[in-house]
Amino acid sequence: MPESVPVRCPACRRAHRYTAPSYPCACGAPVTPPLDPDAVPVPVGHRAWREEWVTVRCGRCGCDGEWPRPELGCPCGTVLRIPVTGPRTSAPAAPAAPPGRPAFRSVPIRTVRDAVTAAVLYLRRLGHEDIHRADRHPPAGIGLAGRGVLAQVDPSARPATLRDVECLWLTAMTESARCLYFSLAGYAEDARARADALGVPLFLLDLAGVPQPVNGPADALDALGPDGGA
């Protein structure tokens, strides 16, 4: 059962009850960040990518995963970072699911951070466990990288452009990696045509946080896993 702790906002003194979210491990088991009931929540000021994640060990397969650090938004406008204990094993889950990739478990998209989390979850479902912020900044959105893969998450309200797709492909070529593009607003027609020609999988992130394939390379990758887009 997910952990729950009382939280009091230090800005307005309003009392809350926070329940830790569960995330799907690559094996399909739910993992939950370990909350520290004795620590005091801290308002979020300056954000740093490395501080946005917490390590949790899966109780079923024993793998360590990086998941979003728990946060609570108070109605007064203060965002509180909920303290967690050190990395530990998540509660054991039910027996293993049938063979094959686990079903994708989405997170509703309300913020840019949610969009990035949805992309990370999808990449992990494809077998990329070491996803982190890319060293190179893309011309639009947020870059993610892992061993042999680059991804771009575009949370803007404009469709991704031809230049966006080509820049991602060129960067992936220089690093000998495959690439994927995730967009909230879709793609311009010429961007989709160019992605088809280059073999770049394009995904549309709906507000439920489920990446929807919108071209042939994305359909192949979604259906067959990492080897399907080769």
UniProtKB/TrEMBL annotation:
Protein name in the entry = Restriction endonuclease type IV Mrr domain-containing protein
UniProt source species? Streptomyces griseomycini
